[in-house]
Amino acid sequence: MNQTKRLFYNAFVSSIRLYQRLFLDLQVWGRQHIPPGPKIYVQNHITSTDPYWVLPILPEPVHVIIGPGYQSKVVARVLDYFEQINATPRHRKTVVDDAVKYLKRGESIYTAPEGDVQETFRLGRFYPGVAKIYRKIQVPIIPIALLAPRRAMKEFPRLKMIVEGHVYRCVMVLGGPFCVNIGEPFLPDLHHGDETKDNQRIMDELKERIRWLVEDVRVNRSWL
After folding, report:
1. Any long-range contacts for 15-19 (C-beta under 8 Å, 24+ apart)?
2. Per-residue H/E/C for 101-112
3. Which of 43, 141, 156, 175 could form a disulfide with 186 if both were Cys (CB 3.0 to 4.6 A apart)?
4. Residue 76: predicted pLDDT
C-alpha cells in the first residue's frame, strides 16, 4: 500500500475510532500478542460490521479477504483501490496467491474463515484458506475472538446479499458492548503427506484457539 493510500486508509480508520469512542463500549485484550512484521489475523465472524471495529485496534493497515461486499460495483472499486482481496466465487482461485503476494511485501492480511456470520458464542466451519496461505509462507497467525451480547445486534433484512443462492444476513452492532480478545501468535508445524488432511488439522487447532478465547471472555472477564 503506497503512501497516498495509507493516508486515506488512516483517515478512514480515524473516523471509525471516533465513532467507537462516541457509541461503542469497546473492550480489547491481548494487544501485546501482536508481533511486528507480516501476519495473518484470523477472527470468528459474528456481525457484518466486524472489520470496522477491529481495524482501528491493529497497528498497521491490512488487506481484508472480502466476499459479499464485492457484489456492489461501486464498493468493489473502493475495495480494489485499498488493495483488499476479492473472495467472491469468480475470484476464489486467486485469493491464496493474492494474500501471499501482500505477505511477501511485509504487509498483513485479515480474514474470517467461517465466511458468514454465526450466532454469538458459537463457531461455524472454518474453511481451509488460512492453512493454504500458511503453507506457502510461514508467518504468525493471530487468532482473534469477537463477542457482543445479542441485545446489541440488529439484523437488517433489506441489506442481505445473495451470492450463488447463498443468503448472507446483514447483522450489525452499532452501539453497546463489543469485545476483542487477541490470542498469542500461532505457528503450526507443517506435516508432509496429505495436504488436505493437514490443512484441516491446522484449521481445527486454530478454531480451538479461538474457541478458548471466546470462553475466556464469557467465563473469566466482566464485559456486559
Report:
1. 16/52, 16/53, 16/55, 16/56, 17/56
2. HHHHCCCEEEEC
3. 141
4. 86
pLDDT at res. 179: 94
Q: Does domain 3-218 have CATH number 3.10.580.10?
A: no
* Helix, strand, coil percentages, rounded to 5, for the chain: 45, 20, 35
Say if residues 176 and 152 touch (Cβ distance below 8 Å): yes
Category of 121 on φ-ψ map: left (φ > 0), alpha (ψ -120 to 50) or beta: left
Below-70 pLDDT ranges, the chain:
221-224
Q: Identify the pLDDT of residue 222.
A: 67
SS3 of 65, please?
strand
Residue 53: all three cell numbers together:
471495529
DSSP letter for 89, please.
G
**Residue 161, pLDDT score:** 82
Cα-based angle 213, 214, 217 (whole degrees, multiple of 5): 90
Q: Is the pTM of this model over 0.85?
A: yes
| Of residues 144, 125, 148, the one with CA closest to residue 46 | 148
